[in-house]
Design brief:
The chain contains two helices and two strands, in the order ββαα. It has 72 residues and is mainly α.
């Protein structure tokens, strides 16, 4: 029997190919996690930039001063 790769009849412990995590190959899991991290970072940057560069609201006292300047 020259065709037998394991003459003892034992099966290989680890299957060939990349390690599977929740049924997905390891490179695909790493890619998905990196993608999620980049999306969270981008959302954090957008929210932070929106809060930092927000124009201050116009208050009543400022509005009254502007109206008085225009009337004069």
């Amino acid at each position: 029997m020259a065709d037998d790769k394991n003459p003892d009849g034992k099966k290989d412990d680890a299957p060939a190919g990349p390690k599977l995590i929740m049924g997905f190959p390891l490179p695909q899991v790493i890619f998905a996690l990196a993608n999620v991290l980049v999306m969270i970072g981008g959302l954090y940057f957008i929210i932070t930039a929106a809060l930092l560069y927000k124009k201050p609201p116009i208050t009543d006292s400022q509005a009254v001063q502007e109206i008085q300047k225009k009337e004069e």
